[in-house]
Amino acid sequence: MREEIIGLIPAAGKGVRLGLPYPKELYPIIRDNHYKPIAQFVVENLTETGLKHVVFIVNETKHQLMGYFGGGHRFGCDISYVVQERKTDVNGSTSPGLAQALDSAYHLTKGKTTFFGMADTIMQPKDVFARAYDAARPDDDVILALWTTERPEKFGMVRYEDDGRVIEIIDKPSQTELTEMWGCIIWRPRFTEHLHQCVTEHGISDFAQIMNSAISAGMKFRAAHITDGVYIDLGTYEEIMELDRRYREES
Question: By 3-state DSSP, what share of the chain in percent is helix, strand and coil, each rounded to 5?
């Protein structure tokens, strides 16, 4: 790839909904008598592109995650860790939000093209980032990989034109006619700077709001629809049961 790229995986959440005795990013996926933690799937999505540097955003308790992934050599890349500092936002909350988590690695991502995926998801096909990157034009600032969903209330839904130009992100709508959600994102340095400014200067914690403000400011967002793929989010036990059901049907 001509651009200098870096992978970014936020994993600073507490995972309280699952109540696991270990980081939810290490939730075991057992197939063919082999253990693979859920977070390894997105690492493999990233390294499939040839990317060589992955950054995990963690909190101060994620020792087990760091112990498993180490320096990244077993996974064909270098892995760095950024500990997200607790900060009180303008609303008085100390819970780390997605925007703050992504910006906490600004010192490593600035000037680079960032490939961002979530640590508790399974995305198929494996080369999803490569597909999204191939769909990008040289002047695109942000590329959203989209999957069709029947549960828009759980995801960031995307409105876009027939030519792929994104015009709006609607986060977790209770009702909508939209059917496409973003699952992972690629962005270039112009958006990195916009994100950094929104978080550090304006105290904006809503990632959808930050993306929409970038669109309003004239940045070019492109939709890359993954027509033959699967996106699974393991944020709740209901979703874990759905994953188990899928795997049973495949076996």
Answer: 30, 30, 40
CA 70 to chain centroid, in Å, comes to 20
Strand pairing class (5-11; 28-31): unpaired
Q: What is the DSSP letter of 96?
A: P
Element (H, E) at 81: strand 78-83
Q: Three-class SS string for 132-183? A: HHHHCCCCCCEEEEEEECCCHHHCEEEEECCCCEEEEEEECCCCCCCCEEEE
Joined together, the tokens standing for residue 134 give 């191939």
**Residue 240 confidence (pLDDT):** 63
Alpha helix ranges (H) inside 48-140? 63-69, 98-103, 106-109, 128-135
pLDDT, tens digit (0-9, with 9 covering 90-100), for 46-62: 999 999 999 999 999 89
pLDDT for residue 71: 97
Question: What integer pLDDT is reported at residue 238 of this predicted model?
Answer: 65
Q: Which residues are within 8 A (CB) of 219 and not within 5 positions of it... i.e. 6 or more apart? A: 141, 142, 190, 191, 194
Query: Is the Cα dihedral 62, 122, 180, 240 positive or negative?
Result: negative
Q: Which CATH architecture has domain 5-250?
A: Alpha-Beta Complex (3.90)
Measure the CA–CA gap between 36 and 81, rounded to whole angstroms.
20
Burial 19-46 (b: 16+ CB within 10 A, else e): eeeebbbbbebeeeeeeebbbbbbbbbb
**pLDDT reported for residue 176:** 95
With contact defined as beta carbons under 8 Å apart, do 109 and 188 qualify? no
For residue 64, the SS3 value is helix
Which residues of the chain have a pLDDT value below 50?
90-95, 251
Domain ranges of the chain: 5-250
